[in-house]
Specification:
This protein has 634 residues and is of the alpha+beta class. It has a nine-stranded antiparallel beta sheet with strand order 13-14-15-16-17-21-20-19-18. A six-stranded mixed beta sheet has the order 8-7-12-11-10-9, with no helix packed on it. Strands 2, 3, 4, 5 and 6 form a five-stranded antiparallel beta sheet that branches. Strand 22 and strand 23 form a beta hairpin. The chain is globular and about 60 Å long. The two termini are 44 Å apart. Bound molecules: MU-OXO-diiron and calcium ion (CA) (2 copies).
C-alpha cells in the first residue's frame, strides 16, 4: 500500500491490498474452468437459446441483419476517440452545464479557482466533486436535478497538500463538503442550461448532514454509538454512487465504497466487538482508511473510538428533493453493502420492488419486495423497509431464483441479515457476480438489465467472504476484464416473482485482438467495442443507454476502444452503437433527461488534465446533450 499512490488506486484494488483474498485457486481448477467456458460458449447457451427463452429476436444470423437494417437509432455512430474532449454524432451538440466548484447559491465567496480549488468555507455551497448518479424531477413547473458526488480526487481538490493527503481538520472538512449530493434547480436560456442560483430548492447534503435511520435494523446495538445511543440518528451519506427514483417522487442515493473513509488510530482490528470485526473483514474496513485520513482529524471515523460507525454507512438513502427541510432517511430494509444503484419498479399488485447490485468482485445481486402496496397519492411509510430482501441465484440452464434472506434461511437474526447482507447472501449460496453496477428496467417489457463491469478475479480467487468464484452462467469468462450485461425476465411478468429466465444481452470484448470468448458476443464489432459497462438507463423509447468506466489506455487488450464512452442498445435486435466519447481519463457516469426529453444530462467524472476549460485543475462536470433541431432525444 505504501509505495502505491492511493489516489490512483481503484476501490477494489485498495480493498484487495488491505484484505488479501486467499489464493485457493489451484491450477487444475483454472483449466477446468477454461474448458467449461469453451463448452458453454460452444453450446451457444447464453445467446442462441437465450433468444428463444427470452422471447426476443436476438443476434443470430439473418434476423439480426434484417433488424439492423431497420435501426431505431436516429444518428450515425461515432468512432472511438483518444483526445481530451467530448464527441457526439453529427446533428447533436453538447455544453458544460455545471462543474465541480461552481457556486449553486448566490453570493458565494471563495468558490473555485485553479490555484486552490476554492476555500473550505465555500466547499458546501458549490457543486461537489465527481458527479455520478442523478435523477430529474419536475416540481411546480421547475426542473430539479438531484446529483451524487461520489468521492474526491484529493490531489486535485487539495492542491496545496502533498499528493492530496489532508494536513488537518480543515482539509478533511473540505473533502467531506465536496461529497454527498447536490439538489439544484436548472433552467435553459439562450446560453444553454444553467443552475438557478437563487432557487429555493438548491441544497447540499454532505458527509455531515443529519440523517434518520429507519427500518428493521434501526436502533439495533450494532448501530448505536456514544453520540447516538438510539442507533437511529447518523450524520452524512458517503460514496454516493448510483441513484434511483421512487414512484412517489423522491431521490434514492446509494452508498458504495463507504469503507474507505474509516480508519483506526489503533492497529488491532480484533479488539473490536466480534460481530463488528467479522463485518470489517467482509466489508473491507481497515486501519488505514483509503487515504482520506478522516480518522486522524474527525473521531467519528476512528473505529478504535467508534467501532459501530461503519455500520451506519452502506445503505440506500431517500431524499425529498422538493423539501429543503426534510431529513434524509437511511432505509435498513434494503440491506447494507456496496450499493451501486437502486432500480424501483412496481409489481402488478402494487408492491414495490427494488433491484440492487453490490459492486465488488464476486459479490451479489439483490432485490427487495415490499409487504405493502403503493398507489398514486397513497401513503409510502414502510414501503422501502417492511418486506423481504432476496439475493439472486443464477442457474446455468438460464433460469434463476430469488432466495429470501430470512432468519430461517440464514440462521441470522433479521437486523444482522440487513447489516451484514453479504454474509446472509453467502449463507444461502447466492451466485457470485462480476461486479454488479447499474441495474435498469425496460419500460416497455417486464425485463431488467444489469451491467457486470469486469472481474479479473473470476476463476482465480474467492470473494471477500471466501465464496469460490468459478465461471458460471452469467459470468462465463475467467479473468474477465471486459464485462457483460445480463438481463432477466421475471416469471408471470411479475417483478415480485421469485423465479426468472435470464440471458446475456452483450458480452463486451475486442474482436480485433481476440477470436475466442474475449472477442465478445456477436453484437460486438470493431466499430462499437467497449469495455467495463457501468452506468445504464432506459429512455422512454425503450432503448438502453450504456456508460463505461474501463481501461482507456487504448493498447493491448483494449486497443481501438479509445476513451470511456456512452453507447445505446436496442433490447430487441441487440444492436449497439457508440453515441458519445468522453475526454481522456474520464469515466462517463450519471444520466437523466430533462422533463421535456429534449436534453440528456450526462456526467463526466474525473476527466483528464486538459478538460474542459484548461488550467491546472480538471473539473468533473455535468454536460447537457441536445439535438441541434431541439428534437426529443430519448
Ligand atoms: Fe461507483 Fe460501482 O461504481
Ligand atoms: Ca459505477
Ligand atoms: Ca465502475
Amino acid at each position: 500500500m505504501k509505495d502505491i499512490d492511493p489516489v490512483k488506486l481503484s476501490a477494489d484494488d485498495w480493498d484487495e491490498l488491505n484484505f488479501p483474498r486467499p489464493e485457493t485457486c489451484e491450477f487444475d481448477r483454472v483449466v477446468e474452468a477454461a474448458i467449461s467456458r469453451r463448452g458453454f460458449l460452444g453450446g451457444v447457451l447464453a445467446f442462441g437459446s437465450g433468444a428463444a427463452a427470452m422471447g426476443t429476436g436476438l443476434l443470430s444470423g439473418t434476423s439480426a441483419q434484417a433488424q439492423a437494417a431497420a435501426s431505431r437509432f436516429p444518428f450515425t455512430p461515432i468512432p472511438a476517440q483518444t483526445d481530451g474532449t467530448v464527441h457526439v454524432p453529427e446533428g447533436y451538440e453538447w455544453k458544460v452545464m455545471v462543474r465541480w466548484g461552481d457556486p449553486i447559491f448566490d453570493g458565494v465567496e471563495g468558490a473555485f479557482d485553479h490555484e486552490t480549488g476554492g476555500t473550505t468555507e465555500a466547499s458546501d455551497k458549490v457543486f461537489g466533486e465527481n458527479t455520478d448518479g442523478m435523477e430529474s424531477f419536475l416540481y411546480q413547473g421547475r426542473q430539479l436535478l438531484a446529483i451524487n458526488h461520489e468521492y474526491t480526487n484529493r490531489d486535485v481538490n487539495l492542491p496545496h497538500t502533498d499528493g492530496g493527503t489532508p494536513g488537518g481538520a480543515d482539509d478533511v472538512l473540505k473533502l467531506q463538503n465536496l461529497q454527498g449530493i447536490s439538489v439544484i434547480e436548472v433552467a435553459e436560456g439562450p446560453e444553454g442550461w444553467r443552475v438557478v442560483t437563487d432557487s429555493p430548492f438548491n441544497r447540499r447534503i454532505t458527509h455531515n448532514t443529519p440523517m434518520q435511520i429507519v427500518g428493521p435494523a434501526a436502533g439495533h446495538d450494532l448501530l448505536k454509538t456514544e453520540a447516538d445511543p438510539t442507533g437511529t440518528q447518523s450524520l452524512g451519506t458517503m460514496n454516493n454512487c448510483g441513484s434511483g427514483k421512487t414512484p412517489w417522487g423522491t431521490y434514492l442515493t446509494c452508498e458504495e465504497n463507504f469503507n474507505g473513509y474509516f480508519g483506526s488510530t489503533e492497529t488491532a482490528q480484533d479488539q473490536k466487538p466480534i460481530q463488528a470485526a467479522e463485518g470489517y473483514a467482509r466489508y473491507g474496513i481497515g486501519t488505514d482508511g483509503w487515504g482520506y485520513d478522516y480518522h486522524k482529524w474527525d473521531a467519528r471515523f476512528d473505529t478504535s473510538v467508534n467501532p459501530n460507525e461503519p455500520h451506519r454507512a452502506g445503505w440506500v438513502v431517500e431524499i425529498d428533493p422538493t423539501d429543503l427541510a426534510s431529513t434524509p432517511v437511511k432505509h435498513t430494509g434494503l440491506g447494507r453493502f456496496k450499493h451501486e444503484n437502486a432500480e424501483v419498479v412496481l409489481a402488478p399488485d402494487g408492491r414495490v420492488v427494488v433491484y440492487m447490485g453490490d459492486d465488488e468482485r464476486g459479490e451479489f445481486l439483490y432485490k427487495f419486495v415490499s409487504n405493502g402496496t403503493w398507489a398514486p397519492g397513497g401513503p409510502t411509510e414502510g414501503l422501502l423497509d417492511d418486506g423481504t430482501l432476496f439475493v439472486a441465484k443464477f442457474n446455468d440452464d438460464q433460469t434463476g431464483e430469488w432466495l429470501p434472506l430470512t432468519p430461517e434461511t440464514t440462521g441470522m437474526e433479521l437486523a444482522e441479515i440487513l447489516i451484514f447482507a453479504r454474509k446472509a447472501g453467502s449463507a444461502v449460496g447466492a451466485t457470485t457476480m462480476d461486479r454488479p453496477e447499474w441495474i435498469s428496467a425496460n419500460p416497455h417489457a417486464i425485463e431488467v438489465y444489469c451491467c457486470l463491469t469486469n472481474n479479473r478475479n473470476r476463476g482465480v480467487k474467492p470473494n471477500a467472504g471466501g465464496d469460490e468464484t468459478p465461471v458460471n452462467g452469467p459470468n462465463p469468462r475467467e479473468v474477465n476484464h471486459y464485462g457483460q450485461i445480463v438481463r432477466w425476465r421475471p416469471h408471470d411478468d411479475d417483478h415480485a416473482a421469485t423465479t426468472f429466465d435470464w440471458d446475456l444481452y452483450v458480452m463486451a470484448g475486442n474482436p480485433t485482438v481476440h477470436d475466442d470468448a474475449y472477442a465478445g458476443s456477436p453484437n460486438i464489432t470493431p466499430g462499437n467495442m467497449f469495455n467495463s459497462p457501468d452506468g445504464m438507463a432506459f429512455d422512454e423509447n425503450g432503448l438502453v443507454w450504456i456508460q463505461t468506466d474501463g481501461d482507456d489506455d487504448n493498447e493491448g487488450d483494449f486497443a481501438g476502444m479509445g476513451n470511456n464512452q456512452m453507447l445505446v442498445g436496442d433490447p430487441v435486435t441487440g444492436e449497439i452503437a457508440r453515441f458519445l466519447t468522453g475526454p481522456k481519463g474520464c469515466e462517463v457516469t450519471g444520466l437523466c433527461w430533462s422533463s421535456d426529453r429534449r436534453t440528456m444530462f450526462v456526467g463526466i467524472q474525473h476527466p483528464g488534465g486538459d478538460w474542459p476549460d484548461g488550467g491546472a485543475l480538471p473539473r468533473s462536470a455535468v454536460i447537457a446533450v441536445k439535438r441541434e433541431d431541439n428534437g426529443i432525444i430519448g
